[in-house]
From TrEMBL:
Pfam family, one: EamA
Classification via SUPFAM superfamilies: Multidrug resistance efflux transporter EmrE
Protein name: DMT family transporter
Highest classification ranks of the organism: Bacteria, Pseudomonadati, Pseudomonadota, Alphaproteobacteria, Hyphomicrobiales
Lipid bilayer topology: Multi-pass membrane protein
Compartments reported by the entry: Membrane
GO cellular component, one term: membrane
Species: Bosea caraganae
UniProt keyword Transmembrane helix present: yes
Residue intervals passing through the bilayer: 7-29, 35-54, 66-88, 94-113, 122-145, 151-170, 177-198, 210-230, 242-260, 266-286
Length: 287
């Protein structure tokens, strides 16, 4: 398997795993405070990451890699989980998932700024078209219903795109799973302390679905998904493989409908199908 194909395969597996993040977060914030959920998922994943680094005797990152790792930690360990958890207090997971269609454009822009990638003009056409479809749908369906939730989701998309691009560049030097593990370990002292500080006074009222949601976002969304995702971005290119995120709303909407019984309208499905075509077009003209 050539490097580009491997990159797309790893990226696709990462997107599949991430597709469950927003539905799982939606379930978890029913019983957990968003700040506690963010801190707890980071602390749990950080402890697992520390164990992995010690088990495989990984060398410490070079001094020049510390600042980029801090950016990754702030972006994908703290920023995106916290902003989405807060947003999901105002909007449904089905609604928030549609915003994920904007993430490929954000990732591509930061991939150019931070990674020096230069996709062809036609690539930007398909990327912008897919993002415009998603943004237009979100604004038409529910922007006025909860502007706070939508603005939080937009902020999450921007900061996440930065974290993806920065992590992809680091993955070429450190390796995909090492990047997310070091970012988690760097944030572990703060996330651990914050999780203890914001822990609910009693856990007796926490339902089973909330615990399952916490487990999913801690293990899969915060760690395992990034192993595949950062490797895919490093192998196939941040801007190009990042377009796979346009498929994430489709998978996420299916999960939201099947597991949470949330309403999924035909316009939602139509947008998801249209952006899937944009992914194919972006891949065709990526280089």
């Amino acid at each position: 398997m050539d490097k580009t194909t491997s990159g797309w395969l790893n990226g696709f597996l990462g997107v599949l795993i991430f597709s469950g993040s927003l539905p799982a977060t939606r379930v978890a914030v029913v019983d957990f405070d968003p700040v506690f959920l963010t801190a707890a998922r980071g602390a749990i994943a950080g402890l697992l990451a520390l164990a992995l680094l010690l088990a495989f005797r990984q060398k410490r990152p070079a001094h020049g890699d510390l600042l980029p790792l801090v950016v990754v930690a702030i972006s994908v360990v703290v920023g995106f989980p916290l902003l989405t958890a807060l947003a999901l207090k105002h909007v449904s997971s089905a609604h928030s998932i549609v915003f994920i269609g904007l993430l490929p454009l954000s990732t591509a822009i930061f991939g150019v700024l931070r990674g020096g990638e230069r996709p062809r003009p036609a690539f930007w056409l398909f990327s912008c078209l897919g993002s415009a479809l998603v943004a237009g749908f979100a604004m038409a369906q529910g922007f006025t219903a909860s502007p706070v939730g939508d603005l939080l989701m937009l902020a999450a998309i921007v900061i996440c795109g930065l974290g993806y691009a920065e992590g992809a560049a680091l993955s070429r030097r450190l390796g995909g799973w090492q990047v997310i593990c070091w970012a988690l370990v760097l944030s572990l002292p703060v996330m651990g302390a914050l999780s203890l500080f914001t822990m609910p006074a009693t856990l007796s009222g926490i339902g089973g679905p909330a615990w399952i949601g916490l487990a999913y976002v801690s293990l899969f969304s915060m760690l395992i998904g990034f192993v595949f995702w950062y490797r895919g971005l490093a192998q196939g290119g941040t801007a190009t493989v990042g377009q796979l995120q346009l498929l994430q709303p489709f998978f996420g909407l299916m999960l939201a409908a099947g597991l949470l019984h949330e309403a999924v309208s035909w316009p939602m499905i139509a947008v998801a199908a249209a952006v899937a075509l944009c992914v194919a077009g972006a891949r065709r003209f990526a280089r």
